[in-house]
Amino acid sequence: MDLPHIVAAGGIVVRNDPQPCIGIVQLRKNRAWVLPKGKLSRNETALAAARREVLEETGHEVSVHEFVGALSYESRGLPKVVQFWRMQALDRPVRKLTRDVRAVEWLPLPDAIERLSRAHERVFLEHVGPVVLRAAAEKKRSRTVVRRKPARPRVAAAPKRPARVPVGIEPTLHAEAPAPAVIERPTLGEVRAEAPLPAARPEKPAIAPLATTTSNEPASRPRPWLRRQLIDRLLGRSARTM
Predict the structure, then answer these.
(1) How far apart are CA 131 and CA 86, in angstroms?
(2) Where is the Nudix hydrolase domain positioned along the sequence (predicted)?
(3) Where are the chain's structural domains?
């Protein structure tokens, strides 16, 4: 069985003035300076309650970051546990302070620690304050530094393709026609005449002359039968030559 206790939540709020400052509030009822915090409402989470309480007591919208720790002490005879988150105040106040808060101050860390009215809150802020400021400074640098875009990896240029030379269609080689014969025209007054070829003369059968004597006198006539034989022989020779 859980013992009854009080659960609250709040924030270590940083505002970026010329130097980082911590926000603390002054309660109206007893003029005490305390860290902004408050009790949880029914069915409310600690984180939601922390954001709401800081807005009501400081008047600033905040961005909530990491959890920084819890503070435990006795309040009105009961144990009280307060959870804190690091917060960043946004721009100017957006609303009036709640009626329970008389004033809000933004002080450097040493001055804020000294201004706090309760010892347990001073000890707590001494421990978590430097951590909160370092985290806020790193966040601020990450916002102000212009991040260069990563250089694009260089892609090796593709080898250039050789230029395409249009392949001409070789002309079909036609056999050259023989050069026309040049006919030389005779000059004026010059007539070239070729002598006509002699007409072929039919060969006449050779007829042996009559036999003569040494004294050029005709020999005695051959006998008729011998003469016919000689003529037939001569005619047969001429027929073979034709």
Answers:
(1) 10
(2) 4-130
(3) 6-143
Contacts of 236 (CB under 8 A, 6+ apart): none
Q: What predicted TM-score, i.e. pTM, was given to this entire model?
A: 0.58
Residue 211 to residues 35, 223, 237, Cα–Cα distance (Å): 181, 13, 20
d(CA 64, CA 89): 9
Backbone phi, psi, residue 81, to 5°: -120, 125
Tens of pLDDT along the chain (242 residues)? Answer: 466 889 999 999 999 888 899 999 999 999 999 999 999 999 999 999 999 999 999 999 999 999 999 999 998 889 999 999 999 998 889 999 999 999 999 999 999 999 999 999 999 999 999 999 999 888 777 766 545 556 566 666 666 666 665 555 555 555 555 555 544 554 444 445 455 555 555 555 444 444 444 445 555 555 666 777 777 777 765 555 55
Instruction: Look at residue 147 and give its three-state secondary structure.
Output: coil
Backbone angles phi, psi at 94, to 5 degrees: -110, -5
Count of helices and strands (H, E) across the chain: 4, 7
Element (H, E) at 103: strand 101-107
